[in-house]
Design goal:
The complex is a heterodimer of chains A (256) and B (330). Chain A contains ten helices and ten strands. Chain A has a single domain, classed as Rossmann fold, CATH 3.40.50. In chain A, 41% of the residues are buried. In chain A, helix 4 packs parallel to helix 6, helix 5 packs across helix 6 and helix 6 packs parallel to helix 7. A six-stranded mixed β-sheet of chain A has the order 6-7-8-3-9-10, with helices on both faces. Chain A has 256 residues and is α/β, with parallel strands linked by helices. The model of chain B has no long low-confidence stretch (mean pLDDT 88). Chain B is globular and about 70 Å long. In chain B, helix 4 crosses helix 5 and helix 7 runs parallel beside helix 8. With 330 residues, chain B is α/β, with parallel strands linked by helices. Chain B folds into two domains: 239 residues, P-loop containing nucleotide triphosphate hydrolases (Rossmann fold), CATH 3.40.50; 87 residues, no CATH class. In chain B, strand 1 and strand 2 form a beta hairpin. Chain B is built from eleven helices and twelve strands. The chains are: A alpha/beta (256), B alpha/beta (330).
Chain lengths: 256, 330
């Protein structure tokens, strides 16, 4: 299997107070293979989101190296980084605050397409937008409507359409279904799984909900206090967890 | 039987009252909370579960009003009281001392400019339970250690921002429990928390209920929480109860298609389906009146009758009530 992203010994600390530093990610090495869904689980404060930001180079690591399709991206300048930006897209937790309330759905989905100048005419862009709406199962009449007119689940569909518009290689979902109701959550999870199969996406899925992870992930990384304590294929991890902390997490799921 | 009930909602209706029209959001629900038991209320967002809870201690938002039915509160001290008819002043005495509430977001429900110990102590002094400052402080510290906060004397002087989410929720529970209420209403108490902390808080609520012979009403959309915590469950859909049963019965034998849909849309560790089951469609608009069953447009095994007649809540087994034409053998 080919690796899409490989990170070696990355460290990141943040300043807290005058002299103290908080080590958020401590010496983590990680590979994400092409076409797989890798889940990052752990409690809040364990460094999952920081690690995802480091991998996308939204923040710079203190130490270590990150390679995207074999090319080192850690030392690139912002300008050199640009072509890689298109290949990695994000879906956030709260769809209400990650969509611009003053833009209608067409403009929201068109923005990445126009920024990257994917199509040279407006007609072609619109065609692509219709195709995207169809992929995320939204109705055509949504185009002229605004985010506030949609329910939470529909808003999350809009965010997903925006993220996959430019055919990225990596989709990062940071707690993308945590704010949704069970029924809607099931719909969005099905959608993500379907899209992944159709588009051959690689997905980094961050969640603290282990039952969600067991449904969607091929491989699971368990994080605690900035370190990865166990990485294993989903089925194996849930059947025979090796690390003590993984067992503790699994035993905490209510109603199992 | 009815003497054992601490709280009884009889045909309770809550509506949003506007200038031109009123919009019913809770449509005549009956809910019983026996003494010493934990009752769950589940449903999707917008189905009226929080409104039901808020109507109990009269903290409905200004645009909503109880429009019918009664809320019967039974205690040895005051006998039978209808909370819906109480004046605000009398209600205020009951809030906190007899009925306490824990909300979902512990950060926004704590005062950021007050040390947590002082905030808890305020409950005691305002209700006049403990006027002596020193004794009150001792009681707060004792309560903090009961809810599992390490070094309670030190934490007394902590500010809310210095505590983690789980700790804040523990402070909220301590605040709710300090006057030894008879009923704890917990509105999504663990939704904002991690699984590990969630498990701790759930077992804390369970333990406190058992040790203090307290009842609880737990509102949640997480079926896992319901199965670990509750004795009896009500499932709400669009402002009415569609199914209610003892917790084991509900999970083993869900009768209403909505309950079945809810249960099967949760992913489980261990079984790996290709796709999750989903309930088709969305929650319909509450403004539209429909003479048939509220669920029939999303139901997979609807019959003709569903479109013309609202089903009634009927008992199908011991303590198991369902609102569905199909379950009656029609």
């Amino acid at each position: 299997m080919q690796t899409l992203i490989s990170a070696r010994n990355i460290k990141k600390s943040f300043r807290i107070g005058r002299k103290k530093r908080f080590l958020a990610v401590n010496d983590v090495s990680l590979d994400i293979f092409k076409g797989e869904t890798l889940a990052l689980v752990g409690e809040s404060g364990s460094g999952k989101s920081t690690l995802a930001k480091l991998l996308m180079r939204l923040i710079k690591a203190d130490e270590g190296s990150i390679a995207f399709e074999g090319q080192e991206i850690e030392e690139l300048s912002e300008k050199e980084m640009l072509p890689f930006r298109r290949e990695m897209q994000l879906v956030f937790q709260d769809p209400a605050s990650s969509l611009d309330p003053r833009m209608n759905v067409r403009d929201i989905i068109a923005e990445p397409l126009e920024t990257w100048k994917v199509y040279d005419s407006r007609e072609k862009t619109d065609e692509r937008i219709m195709e995207l709406l169809d992929m995320v199962e939204l109705k055509e009449d949504s185009l002229k409507r605004y985010p506030r007119q949609f329910s939470g689940g529909q808003r999350q569909r809009i965010s997903i359409a925006r993220a996959i518009a430019v055919n990225p290689k990596l989709l990062v979902c940071d707690e993308s279904v945590s704010a949704l109701d069970v029924c809607v959550q099931a719909q969005i999870l099905n959608l993500l799984k379907k899209l992944k199969q159709e588009m051959d996406l690689t997905c980094l899925f961050i969640s603290h909900d282990l039952s969600v992870v067991s449904f969607i992930a091929d491989r699971v990384c368990v994080m605690k206090d900035g370190e990865i304590c166990e990485t294993a294929p989903g089925e194996k991890l849930f059947k025979s967890p090796e690390h003590e902390y993984t067992r503790y997490l699994l035993s905490s799921i209510p109603g199992q | 039987m009815s003497e054992d009930l601490l709280l009884e909602l009889r045909d309770l209706s809550v509506s949003i009252v506007g200038k031109k029209e009123t919009l019913p959001i809770v449509k005549g629900i009956d809910l019983h909370i026996p003494r010493g038991s934990i009752v769950g209320l589940v449903g999707e967002s917008g189905c009226g579960k929080s409104m039901t809870a808020k109507s109990i201690n009269n903290i409905l938002p200004p645009f909503a009003r109880v429009t019918g039915g009664s809320i019967i509160w039974r205690t040895e001290a005051s006998g039978e009281v209808d909370l819906a008819l109480l004046k605000e002043k009398e209600m205020r005495k009951k809030c906190g001392t007899e009925i306490a509430m824990v909300f979902q977001e512990p950060m926004t429900s704590l005062n950021p400019l007050m040390q947590v110990g002082e905030q808890i102590k305020e409950v005691l002094t305002i209700h006049g339970v403990e006027r002596d400052n020193k004794k009150a402080k001792d009681r707060v510290i004792e309560m903090l250690s009961k809810v599992g906060i390490a070094e309670p004397a030190l934490r007394y002087n902590a500010w809310p921002h210095e505590l983690s989410g789980g700790m804040r929720q523990r402070v909220m529970i301590a605040m709710a429990m300090i006057c030894q209420p008879k009923l704890l209403i917990a509105d999504e108490p663990t939704t904002a928390l991690d699984v590990t902390i969630e498990a701790q808080i759930l077992s804390l609520i369970k333990e406190l209920c058992r040790n203090n012979s307290m009842s609880a009403l737990v509102i949640t959309h997480n079926m896992g929480v319901v199965s670990t915590l509750c004795d009896y469950v009500y499932v709400m859909y669009l402002g009415s109860v569609v199914e209610s049963a003892p917790v084991k019965e509900l999970f083993n034998n869900p009768c209403h298609p909505y309950t079945r849909g809810l249960l099967s849309s949760i992913p489980h560790v261990g079984d790996n389906p290709e796709f999750l089951h989903t309930i088709p469609g969305n929650v319909p608009d509450m403004k539209k009146h429909f003479k048939g069953c509220d669920f029939c447009l999303r139901c997979s095994d609807d019959i003709k009758q569903c479109f013309f007649e609202k089903p009634a809540l009927t008992e199908t087994g011991a303590g198991h009530f369902v609102r569905c034409h199909r379950s009656l053998g029609a």
